[in-house]
């Protein structure tokens, strides 16, 4: 679950009385209602940061005695804590604030990109303990080498976490077509992978005893932009990321659009130019063959290899005309594809990430021009094309959010995992 459903249904139903209601049907309903209300409170604290109890009541639509009761349970689970308020809000003592405890639900996030591997440790509330990204020369790294590299990078980060943390899972963003249910990578052409049981390989080598979830990097970039990007909470959003290929992730009505198994969003291989170049996938005129990295470099006369986009950005910054013309031509094709996505999904926001984030200032006007060629007036007028606020870390942030989404959906699920520190929250203030 990515966000709780309408929290206001618990307006008068929370508190200590309903949990003890007699009758099986009523008991189950009460349990669901309680889980739902716990989720609403944790989600507010996770996304909004520290809040007073009255702010929490206002945001969730729950009354203050229900909030007090839910916070008591969440404190017992180690997920929330409370601090004295810093600034007086009127006569009398300042209101204390409630916060999500990152050590109560900590994750290891991993991103497997073409030119780099990134690992981060983060926790509930969005706190990042450590983040490490290492470049690697472009090559066809085997899944075995890659997972060993991840384990080597992650070890020191995990060791540096507070001793009392509760590790709830590992989230992995990978540039490939990935089955959500078991983190199986069917195809990652730019890594040279086919049929790799990535999540189970990582679970084996990391040996942390927690679930490992793997998903497509553009889908996770979309999730990150939806939850922590420049306009958090936008319900309809398309994230378009360029690396070697083009990936797209879609958030519709506040929920990720994944398809039956998680394969939706392979927009890079949709037809954009029937007279275009041959694509790596074997077809002709794919979007990524016209607007992806290889097309950009080819038009700019820059050779392939690591560091190419750095070189391109440097040349663009120095005003090199051939480079700027190459970016504009690729940008128009990028815009044409974005226009198609705007017509299909009617997003409020189209967020450009990956290499498009790096080149955004040079691409922007050409992208808008290309998009205008394709979009119908009504959806076109509603959509704004922006540069990612999270930059190259969006998929990594999304990998962490993927794991934390499970904790938020069912906060009591952390009970029973190794946990030492619990911070009491005073009740009935
Ligand atoms: Zn293709």
Q: What's the structural blueprint in terms of helices and strands?
A:
Blueprint: H1 24-48, E1 51-52, H2 53-60, H3 64-76, E2 80-83, E3 97-100, E4 106-112, E5 116-123, E6 128-135, H4 143-159, E7 167-174, E8 177-179, E9 184-188, E10 193-196, H5 198-206, E11 212-216, H6 217-228, E12 237-242, E13 246-252, E14 255-256, H7 287-291, H8 293-300, H9 308-317, H10 321-345, E15 349-354, H11 355-358, H12 360-374, H13 377-382, E16 384-387, H14 394-409
Parallel strand pairs: 4-7, 7-11, 12-15, 15-16
Antiparallel strand pairs: 1-3, 2-3, 4-5, 5-6, 8-9, 9-10, 12-13, 13-14
Bound molecules: zinc ion.
Structure description:
This protein has 429 residues and is an alpha/beta fold. It is 40% helix and 19% strand. The chain contains 14 helices and 16 strands. The chain has helices at residues 24-48, 53-60, 64-76, 143-159, 198-206, 217-228, 287-291, 293-300, 308-317, 321-345, 355-358, 360-374, 377-382, 394-409; strands at 51-52, 80-83, 97-100, 106-112, 116-123, 128-135, 167-174, 177-179, 184-188, 193-196, 212-216, 237-242, 246-252, 255-256, 349-354, 384-387. A 5-stranded mixed beta sheet has the order 6-5-4-7-11, with helices on both faces. A hairpin with a 4-residue loop joins strand 5 and strand 6. Helix 1 (24-48) packs across helix 3 and helix 4 crosses helix 5 (198-206). The radius of gyration is 23 Å and the shape is globular. The model is unreliable at 1-23 and 418-429 (pLDDT under 50). The structure holds zinc ion.
């Amino acid at each position: 679950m990515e966000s709780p459903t309408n929290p206001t249904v618990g307006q008068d139903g929370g508190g200590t009385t309903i949990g003890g209601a007699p009758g099986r049907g009523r008991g189950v309903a009460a349990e669901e209602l309680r889980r739902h209300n716990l989720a609403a409170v944790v989600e507010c604290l996770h996304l909004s940061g520290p809040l007073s109890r009255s702010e929490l009541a206002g945001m969730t639509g729950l009354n203050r005695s229900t909030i007090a009761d839910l916070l008591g349970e969440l404190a017992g689970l180690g997920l929330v804590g409370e601090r004295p308020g810093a600034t007086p809000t009127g006569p009398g003592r300042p209101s204390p604030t409630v916060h999500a405890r990152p050590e109560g639900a900590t994750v290891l996030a991993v991103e497997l990109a073409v030119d780099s591997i990134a690992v981060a440790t983060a926790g509930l509330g969005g706190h990042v303990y450590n983040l490490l990204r290492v470049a690697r020369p472009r090559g066809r790294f085997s899944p075995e080498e890659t997972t060993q590299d991840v384990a080597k990078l992650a070890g020191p980060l995990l060791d540096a976490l507070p001793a009392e943390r509760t590790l709830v899972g590992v989230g992995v963003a990978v540039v490939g077509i990935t089955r959500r249910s078991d983190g199986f990578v069917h195809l990652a052409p730019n890594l040279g992978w086919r049929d790799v049981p990535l999540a189970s390989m990582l679970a084996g080598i990391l040996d942390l005893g927690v679930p490992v979830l793997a998903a497509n990097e553009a889908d996770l970039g979309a999730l990150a932009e939806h939850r922590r990007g420049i306009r958090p909470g936008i319900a309809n959003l398309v994230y378009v990321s360029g690396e070697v290929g083009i990936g797209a992730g879609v958030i519709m009505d506040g929920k990720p659009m994944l398809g039956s198994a998680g394969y939706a969003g392979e927009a890079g291989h949709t037809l954009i130019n029937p007279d275009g170049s041959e694509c790596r996938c074997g077809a002709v005129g794919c979007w990524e063959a016209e607007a992806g990295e290889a097309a950009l470099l080819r038009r700019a006369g820059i050779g392939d290899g690591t560091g190419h986009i750095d070189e391109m950005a440097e040349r663009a910054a120095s005003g090199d005309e051939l480079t700027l013309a190459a970016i504009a031509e690729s940008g128009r094709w990028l815009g044409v594809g974005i226009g198609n996505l705007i017509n299909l999904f009617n997003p409020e926001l189209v967020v450009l990430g990956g290499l498009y984030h790096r080149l955004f200032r040079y691409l922007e006007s050409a992208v808008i021009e290309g998009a205008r060629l394709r979009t119908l007036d009504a959806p076109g007028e509603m959509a704004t094309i922006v540069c990612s606020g999270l930059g190259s870390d969006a998929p990594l942030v999304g990998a962490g959010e993927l794991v934390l989404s499970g904790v938020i959906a069912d906060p009591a699920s952390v009970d029973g995992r190794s946990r030492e520190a619990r911070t009491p929250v005073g009740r009935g203030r």
